[in-house]
Amino acid sequence: MSAYPSAEDYILAVQQPERAFTRPDLARSTFAVHPLLQVPVPASGTTAVVFKATVDGRPQALRFFTREDASTRQRYTALNAWFTERGLRADVAGSTWTDDAILVGGRRWPMVQMEWVEGSPLDQHVADLVGADDRPALGTLAGRWRDLVRRAQAARFAHGDLQHGNVLVQGDGRLRLVDFDSSWIAPFAGGPPPTEVGHRNYQPANRVWGPWMDTFPGLVIYLSLLALARDPGQWARFNDGENLLFRHDDYAPPHRTDAWGQVAQLQDPVVDRLAERLRACCTPGWTATSDLESLLGAPAPWWTRTTATPVPAPRPSPTPRPSPTPRPMQVPEPTRLLRPSPAPREHAVPAPMMSQSWTQQWTATAVPTTPPPPPSPVPQPAPRHGPGYAVGTFFLALLAFMVVAGVVGGALQNARAAASDQGLVIVLAGLGAVVVVVTVRQLWKSRTGPGR
């Protein structure tokens, strides 16, 4: 078997359609040309090249193969029948296989004729939305993508090479799939898989050709679109023309690349759950056993929340958003509300605690309008009596004793008392001295305070 023509061979052939094609409608066709080179320039893939041509007044996509093992008439015939039977015509570009369609190098080669879908490849459409910062449109696109994958998998159809270049976005937002060389349908079960294994930036390491091989790339694209809807700025950092956000290297554990860190930094619950499931699908030995909807509805494996947690990328300082207008507080009289307190210059509050609630924007402490009474003095213990107190008391008692004794003794002598009455004098003098001392001390305390 001779080698298939190259892209350059096909470019030369279609410049003279009347010689290259035997079918009358194709011989009359006109091909779109490059605005500067003025020659037909195809979109090239790994197995074929695609030209835009106008055939009988209708735009068509003519696909010519560059590899022998790309596809067969039997495959495309079965696929067309399946699309019609399962109601997928609106989601795919219709195609027809034609044997011996074009003459190149003295031999005729097959061709697949497809309806031309007016639209942009998925990555170009995403770039346009990112450039316009149209986050709602990115979110809507993610929802439409999930619906498309759900319909295809419910119809038991697997594309086999879901990636940005094989998804076209029409002007009304509808998504259409193209390029079915790797596709699977139930009639193909048990047969040999195609040699085409899909774009490496959208496929797991051990992809199994079968009904659920679109689950992994479907999740990759869905997560990427939702993450971009939350932060379109990720596009400029991670898109390199061959992906949306993730690359093949990001799928290897422990998932601590910059792309995972940026996704984690979004701190969005929906995005976080999708990221957990994608990390679980990247586990060595994992193979898809169900559709995307079942995967999204299943609980995330425990290890995606422990050992495989991505490290967030360094976060810039958040820009504070304006706080809502605080509601007036009902403050009981006679209290009043303070004005907003200025932010302190030092000891800034850490970012996780910077709530924008109005309770932290206003000081809600009620302050009395009149100054409160001074606190009552705390009673101090009375000082202990020193040595001078004892000496003074002794001399006072002695003086009182002598005075009372002199008074009583003089009274007894005037009455000619007996000598035995001297004891009575002493007793009376002592009592008198005690009375005088106690009386004098009470008077002193009343003037100087207790404990003196």
Brief characterization of the structure:
The chain is built from 14 helices and 13 strands. It is of the alpha+beta class. Strands 1, 2, 3, 4, 5 and 6 form a six-stranded antiparallel β-sheet that branches. Strands 7-9-10 form a three-stranded antiparallel β-sheet.
- Helicity level: 25-40%
The count of DSSP E runs of length 2 or more, i.e. the number of strands, is 13
Indicate the low-confidence ranges by residue numbers.
306-386, 415-419
Q: Summarize the main sheet.
A: 6 strands, antiparallel
| Fourth CATH level, the homologous superfamily of the largest domain | Transferase(Phosphotransferase) domain 1
- The CATH C-level name of the largest domain is Mainly Alpha
- Tell me the CATH topology of the largest domain: Transferase(Phosphotransferase), domain 1
Number of helices: 14
Q: Compute the separation of the termini in Å.
A: 129 Å
CATH architecture of the largest domain: Orthogonal Bundle
| Mean pLDDT across all amino acids | 79
Oligomer: single chain
| Structural class based on helices, strands and sheet pairing | alpha+beta
Global morphology:
rod-shaped
- Write down the secondary-structure element order: HHHEEEEHEEEHHEEEEHHHHHEHEHH
| Domains (count) | 3
Radius of gyration: 50 Å
Strand content: 5-15%
